[in-house]
Design brief:
The protein is α/β, with parallel strands linked by helices. Helices cover 31% and strands 24% of the residues. Strand 1 (25-29) and strand 2 (32-35) form a beta hairpin.
Length: 535
């Protein structure tokens, strides 16, 4: 039977795992393979390097690279010293990178010089003089054979091997407290500057252990991980789910479906962690037919029942539907891997141990099972946003519940059903409509693969309901058929006034693969541009 780790801080966890699973594989990627004992040794090497440079408790240290072994070991070394790991978006523009480095007050940056088309050496040169634009940044440590001018090697072969400070480093490890801040993660911020989400040590162990238990993870599991490590789904959810169970993580530096299929087959991966667009790309790739994916059994996915079924068809028959947010240490609800498939497709499961929840009306009244309202959570939530007390205060009610901004309902057995974002409510003709209800009606039609419903500004009705629909191959749906079906099952004010069929690849996505609903109206229903010179 699995046992939750005794450790409640990350330095103690690294040591506990090395003793329990020392010779077992922990991490692999880009040709590197580390056992748990070797992972612990590399954490010490990086900790020595950082300590000699002056990194101390509470300092912010950024990581900027794709999914590499060094990402994980650097993260564990930073947090083991009591410093705070700042997770930086590998897709960030120079302006966005400057904001995150400046806002976090990062004193050290650990980076790989390039990622896909991004040249981080060039981007950092654009931000010179650093003394003026990034006054807290003291050094950039790089991995790789060739480093940009001014960068220092992460592994210099001298300070990372010098054991003379090991007593002081061990004392720093021991001084870390369970409630200390370990992570600073930046939200995607589609309409404003991203907020810095602070996460503590002990929930990264306890909550992620509970997530793995719902997925029935063991030390024999091998996770394929191409979800970006800078995202909470990667560096919080997936990473500590597997580590707390002694499993192995197979890193893919950046997602490419053909390479992903090869890795899953050759590394005999048992768990899938991915987004809907990743599942689609794997499902449709021509190499899928000639790859042996029989080792896959489960993991985590988000999306519609149709999208999650693609993962099931890849072989992960015990896939778990999940719900959560960066502020909540990965997930707060996870479907049990042994629940009936139909339940796992429709529901995101029951709340995890150590948490409380309530569904409330706009007036704050607690709603009974079956009624849709805002989901509010307590336990294993962020202690607050970095340098933003106003946003922190606004995010919690007087009882300490976090306002998720998500609409959901509970059934009689305690299973949660996600029904969209509170901010996605469409006000048409003075009446609020939840897009998820309309999407569900459209998705029930034969031939519909995916439906997204949004509001489009209208001078008369405030907003018009608009639907973009992805058809299944060969389906012969029409706009008239969709609206007729909606009239049969929905009140008249919930029937979309605008309907458009699109290819799934046309849907606007974030860098982490989520559909950007706030861009759908402008992308597909923007008014035509007047001819040049017209009045």
């Amino acid at each position: 039977m699995n046992r939750m780790p005794v450790a409640r801080t990350l330095p103690r966890l690294v040591e506990e795992l090395a003793h329990a699973f020392g010779s077992r594989p922990a991490l692999s990627g880009a040709g590197r393979h580390l056992t748990y004992a070797q992972m612990r040794d590399e954490v010490w090497r990086i900790a020595r390097r950082l300590h000699r440079l002056g990194v101390r408790r509470g300092d912010k240290v950024g990581i900027l690279m794709g999914n590499r072994v060094e990402w994980v070991t650097s993260c564990l070394a930073i947090t083991s010293l009591g410093a705070v790991m700042v997770s930086l978006n590998t897709w960030a523009t120079t302006r966005e990178l400057e904001y995150m480095l400046a806002h976090s007050e990062a004193r050290t940056l650990i980076a790989y010089p390039t990622f896909l088309k991004a040249d981080y050496g060039a981007m950092l040169r654009e931000l010179e003089p650093h003394a003026a634009r990034l006054p807290h940044l003291r050094e950039v440590l790089g991995t790789g054979a060739t480093l940009p001018p001014g960068w220092q090697p992460l592994f210099d072969g001298v300070t990372d091997a010098d054991t003379s400070d090991d007593a002081a480093i061990a004392a720093a490890f021991a001084a870390v407290a369970p409630e200390d801040i370990a992570y600073l993660l930046y939200t995607s911020g589609s309409t404003a500057k991203p907020k810095g989400v602070q996460l503590q040590h002990y929930p990264l162990i306890e909550n992620l252990w509970n997530i793995g238990e719902r997925m029935h993870v063991t030390e024999h599991d091998r996770l394929w991980l191409a979800v970006s490590m800078f995202w909470g789904l990667g560096c919080s959810n997936a990473l500590f789910n597997l580590l707390t169970h002694g499993g192995s993580i197979v890193l893919q530096e950046s997602f490419e479906p053909g390479e992903a299929l090869r890795l899953i087959e050759e590394e005999k991966c048992t768990l899938f962690y991915g987004t809907a667009n990743m599942a689609q790309a794997l499902h449709e790739h021509p190499d899928r037919a000639c790859r042996d994916l029989s080792t896959l059994r489960g993991g985590a996915a988000v999306g519609t029942p149709e999208q999650i079924m693609r993962v099931v068809e890849l072989g992960a028959k015990e896939i778990c539907n999940i719900y959560g947010m960066t502020e909540g240490y990965g997930n707060c609800h996870v479907a049990d891997a042994r629940d009936p498939l139909e339940k796992r497709l429709e529901s995101v499961g029951r709340i995890l141990p150590g948490r409380q929840q309530k569904i409330v009306s706009p007036e704050g009244r607690v709603l009974p099972p079956g009624e849709v309202g805002e989901l509010m959570l307590k336990g294993y939530m962020t202690p607050g946003y970095y340098k933003d007390p106003a946003a922190t205060a606004a995010s919690f009610d007087e009882e300490g519940y976090f306002r998720t901004g998500d609409l959901a309902y509970l059934d009689a057995q305690g299973y949660l059903y996600f029904r969209g974002r509170l901010k996605e409510l469409v006000k048409t003709g003075g009446i609020n409509v939840a897009p998820a209800e309309v999407e569900e009606a459209i998705m029930a039609m034969p031939g519909v693969r995916l439906a997204q419903v949004v509001g489009v500004p209208d001078a008369t009705r405030d907003e018009l309901l608009a639907a973009v629909i992805v058809k299944k191959p060969g389906a012969s749906l029409t706009v008239e058929a969709v609206t007729a079906r909606c009239r049969e099952v929905l009140a008249a004010y919930k029937v979309p006034r605008l309907v458009r069929f699109v290819d799934e690849r046309e849907l606007p996505l974030t860098t982490t693969g989520k559909i950007q609903k706030n861009r759908i109206a402008a992308t597909f229903f923007a008014p035509p541009t007047p001819p040049e010179g017209s009045a």
